[in-house]
Queue: 3 jobs
Job 1
Amino acid sequence: MTTVLKTDTALLELALRMGDNALILGQRVGAWCGHAPVLEEDIALANVALDLIGQTKLWLSLAGEVEGKGRSADDLAFLRDVRAFRNALLVEQPNGDFAQTLMRQFLFDAWHLPMLRALKTSADARVADIAEKAEKEARYHLERTEDLIIRLGDGTEESHLRMQGALDALFPFAGELYAADAIDAELAARKIAPELATIGDAYLSYLKGALADATLTAPFDAVARRGGKQGLHTEELGFILSDMQWMQRAYPGAKW
Amino acid sequence: MAALATIPSANEIWTWLEEVPDPEIPVVSVVDLGIVRNVGWEGGDLVVTVTPTYSGCPATAVISFDIAEALRRRGLNNVRIKTQLSPAWTTDWIGDKAREKLKAYGIAPPAGGARCVGDLKNPIVECPHCGSMATEQVSRFGSTPCKASWRCRDCLEPFDYFKSF
């Protein structure tokens, strides 16, 4: 008699959500390489992108393992279509100017760090191990973005204007990061992931303090834009994927 | 290479691994950096457990390859490299001897060790060129994931700081 193992759908979704956030943001940030306003920031952006792509490999390898269909991290990154991606809408938003890139990173880092910290005590040891590794990197990322947000928000008239504009445009996408759906509820009940409401409380109270230091005002009552975690994306993601995946689509199985 | 007549001890293998240089910073070995976590036999296989420094560090794959290659040259053909994420790599695993080697190479060693004062977020870093403590951070990031860019206000030279992590 053969036993058919049922795929742990909730765990698979968690690995895809964490992995796709890192992948799409890493791809976005990587596009700055050679274009940043100053050399030091160019190096910083490339390094952050590298950390995120490294984390992507860990999460998507786990996703492939949980799914049990023999798909590798590369298969999942390069051969899935838009609706199969589970990243939050925030990370697929365009690079815009440096203020938008920085604000997107800050809003992500400020959520990523408490999320990873909580995942370190996951009931699934593989999730806990990845979180332990990624948390150290996320902490370093947030130190940089917090510093820059404050310096540019509370900087010149021009830099303040741009940072405030970026915050107004991007804040509505932040709510999705801590809005729980049925999968999040199942993961929390099984102690695989934290209650997202708890992460949301910590996130918002941290944002209030840091943004006040930056003399910026967030539209806290803005309606949250959602859907990415369920595969319903903004039009931006398709363009990212066509750029990122075209090689594997045009030359299937091509290797270095 | 012919198979070995006797099975080398774990201690002997550690000594061999101490000769495998880090591909990016060849003055220190993969053992110096704390990347090799364990060495042991499982059946007929030698299993070397390694941990990545940064999850996206491109040197990680090269390090695994270099370790297997170095052991093959010693006659060990059945080598398996196992990656372990937890406990996560920390610069606390870099010993004093390796810190001296980094400094002599022109890289300021990570804070938290014997040579550094100040807290980890705002370390006071000694210039590896002139020994001055009047140094400042230029960028939190540098030429490899493990380094940040600094400069000395006394001798005016830029230098890499192996960031505390």
Note: The longest helix of chain A spans residues 39-67.
Job 2
Amino acid sequence: MYKTFSELKKELRKDIPQLKKIRVALLGDTATQFLNIALKGTACNEGFEFEIFEADFGQISRQILDPSSEYYEFKADYTIIFESSHKLLSQYYKSYNTQVSFAENKISYIEDLYRNIQSRTKSRVIYCNFPVINNQVFGNFSNKVESSFVFQLNKLNYLLSAEIAIKNDNFFIADLLSIQNKWGRDFMFSPSIYVNTEMVLSLDALPIVAHHITGIISSLEGKFKKCLILDLDNTTWGGIIGDDGLEKIQIGSLGIGKAFTEFQYWVKALQKRGIILAICSKNDEDKAKEPFEKHPDMVLKLDDIAVFVANWDNKADNIRKIQSILNIGFDSMVFLDDNPFERNIVRENLPEVCVPELPEDPAEYLEYLYGLNLFETASFSENDAERTKQYQVEAQRAVDLDSFTNVEDFLKSMAMISDVKPFDSFSKPRVSQLTQRSNQFNLRTVRYSEQDIESLMNSEKHYTFSFTLEDKYGDNGLICVIVLEKENQETLFINTWLMSCRVLKRGMEDFTLNTIVETARKNGYKYVVGEYLSTAKNQMVKDHYERLGFTEQDEKWILDVDHYESKQVYINNK
Amino acid sequence: MNKDEILAKLTGIFHDELDNDGIVLSFETTAEDVEEWDSLSHIQLIVAVEKAFGVRFTSSEIQSWNNVGEMIDCILAK
């Protein structure tokens, strides 16, 4: 699945289409020219254009500590700091008397760098952790010697996560250690190239490292995988349910069955962390569902699946159907199927869907998939596990809507309740996540980190609202985010209006506008101003303000607060 | 494989790695003669040649060749 370094380099010589530009600073203590090229090429494939400032190597502290450095002049959106294990080892050798506190000293140095950056810029920091070098000075005994390099290196990697990453919203770790774990130290590092060029990453490792770092950036930019679509026969279990029958399919602890069971545990873990699962199988629906309902060794249950499609239509059409129910982009979907023919049909018809080339032997599925790192994410909140349920409920709602002749009656029957609140420390992670995930119903697509949300909470210039929506089918959770900004004495500007597409067509837009106008009135404003900034994905709200009765002026939309009549809604305040 | 066959195979590698099919190699060609052949792309070439011929160069060999002919001699000696 990975392109080679040469292919990535060639990518840069092609005519680059208009892509979103992102400013990235690359600071390393070894030569980073190749990493620079690999990052740019990988970004292109992901739909971004990286503009990279690459400091001369060994300049990390100078660039960051000096407020007038080229680094600060560049105004990076992201700062990648890449310190190598080799330089770390030589620092360690030289710190004769302080080896026992080496990791802690290094951590406070890194914290200091981070604080300097955060005090002067809004740049997010991506710090590469350290692939292990066991210098074998103590052999295995190093694990019992606190001052040994191996001990200090392990401690340093742990502290990077436990002391810095967990505690700082804008600090992210590029997990080079896990890349080394997966691909091996000899694969990742080439001594002769290091000696000749001061580069610590082999040419073969560069595309993988670049993929990981770019993955962090693109998920922070709102682009990541949200849905996993699974084939069943020989993908989710061994054998063919229609031919072999319930007793003969392979799953459980014996033989090849073990491979499928472990695969299912992995899929279930993804589901629990918020990945939506869908089934797309060529089968009769009742036969396809039977193992989920009756087989004792099935780890995945029907409850885990948001959309279940089993029929004899072609898979590209079925994936289109899944897409229309879930209302998410094709580029956020991954499709796993053991059959090369089906994979190619989907690739040809839906080139945006990610279709990994699964190995022939099911025993190798997991290791292969681990290597691809498909499910990068920039956030995690407790609600994520609830997502499947919400999509299932949505499917049920769609069925019920058909039985009402009149939409108003249907809306009344739903008994909708919304909890409207300013952002608080409980909603902070979810609000930040929604600003990063929402692409379609999002008027200006401003992305906020948790730290940004925190400053909005404390700002005198802003009014913030989060909305939940509950109805008789269940709780949708937090589904709408509003940020209002004081423009002047008379005018409130709608800095952010985004909504989850799950709650479309329920009058939530009207309910939200009522709330906005109420706030404006209460605080003495005369006008509410909205703006639509077009992206590749938010065409659905192009006419949003017009529909709600705003009038256009200088590419913005104005609403006169005094003449606004509250809209009829069927949602009540909690 | 004789020297000429290696030269032909090397030419293909140079075309591919340096992304220029116009490059013509002879035994006397040096880095000076090929615009795209700089110290960085030299590393790309080394890695590609190692893979194509199934050989490993030592770190001093990497910097020792004065022209393509010497590189070929080195491959032949492996």
Note: The interface with chain B takes residues 5-6, 9-10, 13, 33-34, 190-193, 195-197, 199, 202-204 of chain A (CB under 8 Å).
Job 3
Amino acid sequence: MSIRAPRIEFAVGAFLLLALGSLLVLALASTNGRWGLGSDTYPLTARFSTIGALRPNAPIKIGGVAVGHVDKIDVDPVKFDTVVTLAVNKRYDKLPADTAASILTSGLLGESYINLAPGGDPDSLKPGDEIYLTQSAVDLIQLVGKYMFSGGGAKPADNAGQAADPSADVPDYLKGDAAPTDETKSK
Amino acid sequence: MPFVAATRSLGRAGLFSLSVFRASKPTPDFFKELVREIYKIGARSLPIIAVGGAFVGLSVTLLGYRALETYGATAQVSALLGLGMYRELGPVLTALLFIGRAGSSIAAELGLMRATDQITALGLMAIDPVGKAVAPRFWAAVICVPLLTGFFCSFAITASYFESVHVIGLDAGTFWQVLKDSVDFVDDFLMALVKSAVFGGTAALVASYVGFHAEPTIEGTSVATTRAVVNASLLVLMFNFVMSAFLFR
């Protein structure tokens, strides 16, 4: 044992120390610090009719500050709405029972996140509780489509003097019983 | 019968790997060899890993900046850097550099030991040549490559920090915050270490298998060195795809 060259031993020791030190610095400075053991979060659930582009690990924010992340996303096999499990940091365990959850998007093309708007209820949400006040994701493309196809239907000359007839936008094949009366009117 | 021959050589490699595990006994002699191998293939690989990591970090930063500029999302360049480094580039490039630096030397050493009948002599003295010559190199690689990957990533991130903050002019606080938000400790950081341990073990096993079974001639040694580098690099790239497909959904 003692004939081992001390220079090599020192070099190996220095190498291992340096390597472990750099791993430690990397782990602290460049990761999100979710060590995976002994979680410091508690679960809450929320139901949405549609979640848009929300994905697991998306942030949960109160007033723009991240307070947790989305743990998992499931579809209820009976009601077919999506059940989102939120992992909220234990520091924020006094959320009022009437807290509202909504799915928002940061910026025009940014990532989806869940915004929590705390209410004024004196009772607070316990781990595992469900948030009842929810607002689903808004599909921007659908909104744009609705706006374009509902606004451009009628020509300006048709309803110059009269209020717009809401049935004017409805295609004939959808009118059903109303269709014949429409025909007689135009004749 | 090329198929039978290929299957047999695969089986030989598998049995050789098994014999390496069986020959790894924690004796004082084993630890003495282990320390020497960690010095030779780990500590001496540090400069090439550091320089390689720094330049990879610089070029990934330039590339990411150019691509993200289109969407006005240049602040996300550190997310691209962090995920790219930990998930793919760090483990793979470290393993490839390690194969070029240490895998070739393992194959050459064992090939020369074979050519000069040292392996036969060890066997004659009732010393298991696998336990004496191969097992310490294998475990040294399994220990060293994750550590070297850590060096690779830290040099890459440091170099990228200087590039993006002091040359391109991004905000330093945003750089670190975006990096922290996007890199998960378990899914990205720990998986990078697991990946590189597997790559290190693969590289060492391939190199020592090829060297151990080299033709006992001068030419056999050089053929073994070439084959060690080629086969180990290809295996690492294939394993990387398989592990990425399973680890990162």
Note: Chain B touches chain A through 31 residues (CB under 8 Å).
